[in-house]
Amino acid sequence: MHPSSERILDGKFVELTYKVTDRKSGHVLTRVEFPLSYVHGHNEILAPFVHKELEGRSAGDVIEVPIDGNQIFGSRDESLVFTDQIENVPGEYRQIGTSILMENDKGQTRSFLVTRIDDKTLTVDGNNPLCGREVVFTLEILTVRDATHEETRAGQAIIAGAEIDPSLMRPVS
Questions:
Q1: Cβ atoms within 10 Å of 12's Cβ, excluding its own
Q2: If DSSP codes are grouped into helix, strand and coil, which group holds residue 44?
Q3: N or C: which end of the chain has fewer CB atoms below 10 A?
Q4: How many CB atoms lie within 10 A of CB 20?
């Protein structure tokens, strides 16, 4: 069988890249630096509705999946936005886009993003960056082939340095 005619089905090793674009502004909100790989049906690392769209596709295909951020992440909660005096914030967090993992008094953790800095204050936001946005998830399929026994057993081919956008990850139940 010619490799380019392989389709994404259970047990196939898939390598892809993606970007997320704001539908209104056209700005790219996030993109993966390195190709992401997984074994279809075994360790699906993206949200289930994305894997459904990938099914039956081949290497070379580029697909667009529209996402309503409110539907997936709920609407914005302004009580998750905090502003503090900049001197109370350690230097390594004083950069827009920095992610800070915080814990509440019940021991639950949530990721906050630094969204604003001025001379005196720093603002963090615990809402998912896709809340309230309509975005397009564009995936480019690079490789589709039979997974090796090791890949299926391990669940994925380990790729050094791969960064996965947490907003598109499958929630842990």
A1: 21
A2: coil
A3: C
A4: 23
Residues 6 or more apart in contact with residue 36 via CB below 8 angstroms: 15, 16, 17, 18, 45, 159, 162, 164
Instruction: Record the pTM.
Output: 0.64
Determine the residue type at 151: E
Domain shared by 7 and 47, yes or no: yes
For 9, residues 6+ apart whose C-beta sits below 8 A from its C-beta are: 40, 41, 55, 56
Q: How far is CA 16 from CA 48, 49, 74, 81, 166, in A?
A: 16, 16, 27, 34, 16
pLDDT, tens only, 30-58: 888 899 999 998 877 788 888 899 999 99
> Which residue range(s) make up the domain with 32?
3-71+131-168
Does one domain contain both 82 and 31? no
One-letter identity of residue 79: S
How many helices (H) does the chain have, and how many strands (E)? 3, 9
